[in-house]
Amino acid sequence: MRVLQQLVEQRRALVDDVRRLTNRITDALKQYFPQALEWSHDKDTVVFCDFLTRWPTLKQAQRARQARLRRNRRCLCIQSTDLSAARQSPS
Fold it and tell me: Per-residue pLDDT for 64 more than 90?
């Protein structure tokens, strides 16, 4: 029983860590790249992290090739109208 209790506590700590890190990422993105938050609601996924690694700013996302963004858009469930609007808006 003690082993199970330790495992449950470790899992709870890991879940809290994920929540804390996700909140920190969200707060940082609100400051300089809020469009990324609008494009994806699943901020705790590898796909979202890959997107931010490849395009950490709106300016870099705007300069990216359309085909590459479309592939990532499918993974992030980004609406094509959102991408078009981002490309046309000033950075």
Answer: no
> Residue 35's closest CA among 9, 71, 73, 4?
73
Model pTM? 0.67
Cβ-proximal residues to 75 (8 Å cutoff; 6+ apart), any chain: 47, 51
- The tens digit of pLDDT for each residue in 9-25 reads 999 999 999 999 999 99
Alpha-carbon gap, residue 38 to 2, rounded angstroms: 43
Q: Which residues contact 42 (CB under 8 A, 6 or more apart)?
A: 48, 76
